[in-house]
Amino acid sequence: MILNHLWGIYAHPNEEWHSIDDRHESYFYSLSHIAIISLIPALMSYYSSAHLGWSIGVGDVIKLTQKSAAFMSIGMYFGLMIGVIALAILIHELAKTFDANPSYTQSLELAAYTATPLFMVGFAAFYPVLWFVMVIGLVGLAYSVYLLYTGTPILMHIPEGKGFIYASSVVTCGLVLLAILMAASVILWSLGMGPVYSG
User: Which of 184, 14, 168 is nearest to 91 (CA)?
Assistant: First the structure.
């Protein structure tokens, strides 16, 4: 089952990382996990933007047209998938610096399962109030970072001290990657691909 590690990374993350390391599913398996998990924020952002409307604390509820919401959600879906794959490549490329020699599958597993809690934040869009989603988002981000720090030494087969520095480097690269994705979004919006609000 593609999502068979989902409960484990929440209930007992250390044991689950060891289980992932022991089993090492295929590269396609990890890609399938990303493809399914990425649907959560994409579909939820569509539903909340087109049908529920967003509240930013003041003024009227903000809604997008269904066409615009669908376009933005499709862009988000592929952006999230590309982001995780790019993070996996960064993890793989950084490995040599820390005397690790992971396969691309191991690197993708680490990126995919680390990103999962952040993607699960998409369910918070059932209550599309900005402060609420931001709080849940911070919790999801914190847990994703925790998973990265606990999973890196296990999947990369390196000591915990070296794993901490490795994970810190990945976090830094991840922030740079996030900034690049945000900049790309701003550029696309400036080219006329931004949101269209419903009346």
Answer: 168
How does DSSP assign 154-191, residue by residue?
HHHT--HHHHHHHHHHHHHHHHHHHHHHHHHHHHHIII
pLDDT (tens digit, 9 = 90+) per residue, 50-107?
A: 998 888 776 778 898 999 889 889 988 998 999 999 999 999 999 988 889 999 999 9
Task: Count other C-beta atoms under 10 Å from residue 11's C-beta.
Answer: 9
Closest CA to 39 of 76, 85, 83: 76
DSSP string, 131-158: HHHHHHHHHHHHHHHHHHHHHHHHHHT-
Residue 4 exposed, middle or buried by CB count within 10 Å (0-12, 13-18, 19+): middle
Handedness of CA 98, 38, 150, 182 (dihedral sign): positive
The owner of tokens 């890609």 is 31
Does the global pTM surpass 0.85? yes
